[in-house]
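Hi all, a correction to my earlier message: I attached the wrong file for Reverse transcriptase domain-containing protein. Here's the right sequence:
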Amino acid sequence: STDTCNSLLSFLTIKSPKFTSLSPADPHALPPDDITFFESFSVPGASYISDLICKSRPTTCQLDPLSSTLVKSCPSSLLPFICSIIHTSLWTGIVPSAFKTAALTQFLKKPGSDATNFNNLRPISNLPFISKILEKVVANQLHSHLSSNSLYEVFQSGFRPHHSTETALIKITNDLLRAADSGQISILILLDLSAAFDTISHTVLIHRLSTIGISKTPLNWFKSYLSDRTQFVQLRTFRSNPKPVTSGVLQGSVLGPLLIIIYLLPLGNIFRKFNIHFHCYADDTQLYFSTQPNPPLPSSSLLSCLTEVKSWFSSNFPQLNSSKTEILLIGTKSSLRPVPPHSASTTPHFSPPPKLRAWVSS
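and the right structure:
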């Protein structure tokens, strides 16, 4: 019913924090040296845009005036109009208002869970087809800027070309197995954020973009992209009243995952400051520290690192999900034998998060 749609949208809106003040300057988000500034977009040709349309999945949204299948089947007829929309947006730094509304559909986080419990639902934003083409144009140029200036976090495997869950798995397991071979025990901390896509501050995100060299028209474009957005919940034929989006980036958008990665860039500087190994997959972060047993007490640097990470999250608004954050001990049977029973989980194997999809055992 419409009331259910309105209740669900209200529940999702509560997750978004109310930013009553600006975040203090982040000492970990210092601009890199010798950076090339991204001051203007390259305006793509018609063939480039046509190629993006042909390669895109026909994800028609109820907000589309025409079916995406029809757009893909008649590119030559519609291409001049689509190019005009995209070119104008890139020249002016303004995102069309028609592209700023999202229809939220809900998917169960776990099959078989109770669909009437809103906590079990994952909202995915359906966006107009042409808006996604515009986002792909911008995302490709943003990726080129990040790559050419070596701005990507080296140990980030999420939503990057030539990176995947496999690269994250290989890096983490290789480091843990090498530590185990040398007789060490590793303390693995799996950080989990609560609704990271919904809780990032637009003000902080714009500041983060400026620190990596986004300026002038591109920066204005991102300000326009984030501002004056609305969303509504669609359940079958029922629709909620629209509500403004004042924080976060949209799950289901093209740019959302890339903006999350940029937002979390300062975390890598904190881990390096304390010489803590880490690897990220989008907003999921694994920290690990290897030490000799008898007993494997966390080092002062690890504890200091965790304190600073918690402080960083507090000032940058994403919240750690304590109930899903895990601490595990990893090592061989012989190295784990002398470990006190309450040091951590002392099982000689561990089940990594579902994204890694592997078992590592002794």
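Sorry for the mix-up. Confidence is low (pLDDT under 50) at residues 344-358.
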